[in-house]
Specification:
Nucleotide-diphossugar_trans, 24% helix, Spore Coat Polysaccharide Biosynthesis Protein SpsA, Chain A, globular, 11 helices
């Protein structure tokens, strides 16, 4: 199918997923900034009604009046538990929700019109310039339509691991990172089979041509893979999609999924003015206010290195707040304020799981394996004693957690297999 045929018979869309109120502020700012830079392209917000509070859903409805946003309720997609496969290997507790991201492959049409090209964006992203030219273009169309059509486009993962995270495998070193070898911002690394890290993608951003065949392809693999194998994956949706689309994906520009750490890890390609989609990995900017050091440096993030990028988020939040205030959206603003750090800097328990505490869970790992009382395990299980002051660690209904349920959350819902 030609590009013109695709354009005339369907429409392009972005999509994101919201399963917890703790990500509400991120989704609102994603919708707001995407509408600023790509107003003609709708954002479809997939959300799970059983785990979102009614005020949070109402906030999304209110924002949809001002942004080109479509709300799309979906059921949770979770792995069933059993006595013999209850262990899992995910790096962060919040990743348990990411299986539901696969629901995006079920989105074939909206309001009776076919979705032609669909680009998923994680809810912890913000838009700084129109990403559509890098995503919805003839080159990507030609690739996605090639072969049997079961393909996608995404960016490479970053395996530099300069923070020396204990959960990362030994192969995660700068020389094995695809982004290390690019010469400048316009270079796009090739997808290679060797080393294996050169053939792995980050699924914060990915684009595909929706179809019933592609949907069956993805969910067929999900259904046929034993739960105990899926449960071992550190980054559930990302690791799974790398398995499904092994040799079936093409690389996008770094601009479409610019991890905040790349600003100081990959200066070879990063340019502030060229970022289209900024990905706030690990701790989220809305979880804590930016601080100033004694030497006048902005400080934010897990290691204090993200003051500038987190500051950009707060600048956009201030603009959004002022606009919605003038539009009389009092209830929307009151709800949003419950899920961002307070101005007085007081500790906010609702933000711990998406703030600095997001790394606590990952400390249970050593050399890519889970650790129990100083011993390595090869089965990907997370076990051992809870960290000091984290008595609720490991007591969640669907596996380890490191905090109490977020304000307005109703649990994680029932286990739902794809239909």
């Amino acid at each position: 199918m030609s590009t013109k045929e695709r354009d005339s018979n369907g429409f392009n869309a972005y999509a994101t997923l919201l399963t917890r109120p703790s990500y509400l502020a991120g989704a609102l700012l994603l919708a707001y900034t995407l509408n600023q830079h790509s107003p003609s392209t709708p954002l479809v917000i997939l959300y799970t009604p059983e785990t979102m509070s009614e005020p949070s859903i109402n906030a999304l409805r209110a924002e949809a009046k001002h942004s080109n946003t479509i709300l799309y309720p979906v059921e949770h997609l979770r792995l069933p538990t059993s006595d013999d496969d209850g262990n899992h290997g995910m790096v962060a507790e919040r990743f348990i929700d990411t299986w539901t991201k696969l629901r995006v492959f079920e989105l074939l049409e909206l309001n009776g019109k076919r979705v032609d090209r669909l680009c998923f964006l994680d809810a912890d992203m913000m838009i700084f310039k129109d990403p559509s030219p890098y995503i919805f273009n003839a080159e990507n169309d030609a690739y996605l339509a090639g072969g049997d059509g079961k393909r996608m486009c995404a960016t490479h993962i970053c395996v530099c691991n300069l923070d020396h995270d204990s959960w990362a495998p030994k192969s995660w070193v700068p020389e094995n990172c695809a982004h290390t070898h690019v010469q400048g911002p316009d270079d796009v690394p090739e997808v290679k089979s060797e080393p294996s890290t050169m053939g792995e993608m980050n699924t914060g951003t990915f684009v595909f041509h929706p179809s019933a065949e592609l949907r069956s392809f993805v969910f067929g693999k999900f259904e046929s893979t034993p739960s105990k194998e899926l449960r071992k994956l550190k980054f559930p949706d990302q690791d799974f999609l790398n398995i499904v689309f092994d040799g079936r994906w093409k690389s996008l520009s770094w601009r479409t999924n610019a991890l905040k750490t790349w600003r100081y890890w990959h200066a070879n390609m990063w340019r502030d003015a060229e970022v289209a989609v900024l990905h706030y990995i690990v701790d989220k900017p809305w979880a804590a206010r930016v601080q100033m050091s004694s030497d006048g440096k902005k400080v934010a993030g897990y290691k204090g290195d993200d003051g500038d990028t987190h500051g950009w988020w707060w600048d956009a939040f201030a603009r959004w707040t002022e606009e919605r205030r003038k539009q009389g959206e009092k209830e929307l603003l009151e709800t949003a304020e419950k899920y961002v750090a307070s101005e007085d800097g007081k500790d906010n328990e609702e933000m711990r799981a998406v703030g600095g505490g997001a790394q606590e869970f990952a400390k249970k790992w050593k050399n890519g394996k889970a650790v129990e009382d100083g011993k390595e395990e090869s089965n990907g299980a997370v076990s051992g004693n809870p960290p000091d002051g984290k008595e609720d660690f490991g007591k969640g209904p669907h596996g380890p957690i490191l905090r109490k349920p977020m304000l307005g959350e109703r649990g994680h819902g029932r286990v739902v297999r794809p239909r």
